[in-house]
Amino acid sequence: MQWETVIGLEVHVQLATQSKIFSGASTAFGAAPNTQACAIDLGLPGVLPVLNEGAVAMAVQFGLAIDAEIPETSLFERKNYFYPDLPKGYQTSQMAQPIVGKGEVEIVLDDDVRKRVRIHHAHLEEDAGKSLHEDFHGMSGIDLNRAGTPLLEIVSEPDMRSAKEAVAYIRAIHAIVTYLGISDGNMAEGSMRCDVNVSVRPKGQETFGTRAEIKNVNSFRFVERAIEFEVERQIELIEEGGKVVQETRLYDPDQDETRSMRTKEEANDYRYFPCPDLLPVMLDSAYVEHQRSTLPELPTDKRNRFETDLGLSTYDAGVLSATRPMAEYFEAVLAVCGDAKQAANWVQGELSGHLNRENIDIRNSPVTPEQLGGLIQRVLDDTINGKAAKQVFAALWNNEGQSADEIIEARGLKQVTDTGAIEAIVDQVIADSPVQVAQYRDAEPEKRGKMIGYFVGQVMKASRGTANPQQVNSVLKQKLDEA
Amino acid sequence: MAIEHADVLRAAHLARLGLNSDAEAAGYVDDLTQILEMVDRLQAVDTEGVAPLSHPLDATQRLRPDEVTERDQRERFQACAPATEDGLYLVPRVVE
């Protein structure tokens, strides 16, 4: 039988606010345990939560970025459950009236196939603390620094049909939130966590199969592997006459498998009700429009503009718009040199090569966009040839000069375009290579093209790489073919 | 809507309330049945076109600027905790 996979995702994005969603405690990562958990975060008696405007603004910006409706009124509710890292006995969240309504995200698949994934809604909620299960004399340790950190939970419709689509979707969400600057998107530090809902059904069947929810998957690669494992498990189970049960599973990257956590027998165990401590949130159109005016150009728009306006290939446009720092670097180089194709080649080639080799983030690149743009200018106006340009780049990378011009000057890399000078070198090389010259002249004309490479190399070497290669080629041809 | 003994036990379990005896549970069955009867009476009112009320106050949520205003008071907070170590609150072991 042919099976179809159906995937829906809940992505929890940690918002990059300074303070918590309902208190003035810091959200900074890595502080000593419980030093950033204040009376409100701890749920001590008599405290009153007050909503953080920064978290509201970020949620609205995300909503606008995915073309979602921003309802005038949204509500906070209490989701009740007991766990030691949830000091209040409930999580303040949203259900009936979330801050962001239905929206849409475009994902890009192989061969530039594009697909729209519908977003059901996105809501604001607070994070819980952390339980440390190392043995404290048979007890568990609780760190509540993370309690009250603002999260935006983005809930998709079950629109994805493969692990690859799910990963493309998470990448798209990651690009949007990091472009907006509403999250650092750091998956290793837990700034983005995914719950994946997976089910299978016979191809052509309309109704969905029973789904399993895989909790807390926190890397692109694990999302893909967890889904692949889970799909295989469900198909095998059904083909052997079994039934998929609705349950929560955990992905174990070490074993590369998912395992049952607990059966979700009663979905409405959480007894949501409106939080009496928080009033309805009203956002008027002036507020929403103000947020709209702060939006940067978004990844999909940038990609399309790179392709249509700058004439870059689909591939180049995709790579250069993948992250905001990459796009900003590229655009800064372009602003200096004015040639998109050259800027794209240098950023993706020499620069990315060096960055990857030394594992450096583009934001910390030793070569600034202004320096790289200046270097490209000298290539474009024929001051230096491609070979010298690579030397100049290496020198800039190693901080051996402030600018391309300074390095070109100091090292005498200026391209020799004076025909007289080039002819003199060519004559010398011809005189020094009687054997090769004879071979060349004996060869069939169609084989000469390859053989001329030797002479070009010699001339370039004699000129210390500064001769203009096109000129060298034509002068050599002329002189060798003369006799 | 009728409430039964089992419903009371389930609600008590979800709220982590310890009921000491069947008689205590039976008392809740009676109380909750009366409350639900009142709710049933309210259900009879025609609420067509009336927006659900989420909060009795006719006011909207005030927003707080995104600034850190709290300082570390861990020692004071932990003074009333039954057990702490290395800055952590200690609780009976939770393993899932």
From TrEMBL, chain A:
Subunit annotation: Heterotrimer of A, B and C subunits.
Keyword Protein biosynthesis in annotation: yes
EC number from the UniProt entry: 6.3.5.-
Domain Asn/Gln amidotransferase per the UniProt entry, residue ranges: 328-480
HAMAP family cross-referenced by the UniProt entry: GatB
Reaction equation(s) it catalyzes: L-aspartyl-tRNA(Asn) + L-glutamine + ATP + H2O = L-asparaginyl-tRNA(Asn) + L-glutamate + ADP + phosphate + 2 H(+); L-glutamyl-tRNA(Gln) + L-glutamine + ATP + H2O = L-glutaminyl-tRNA(Gln) + L-glutamate + ADP + phosphate + H(+)
Protein name: Aspartyl/glutamyl-tRNA(Asn/Gln) amidotransferase subunit B
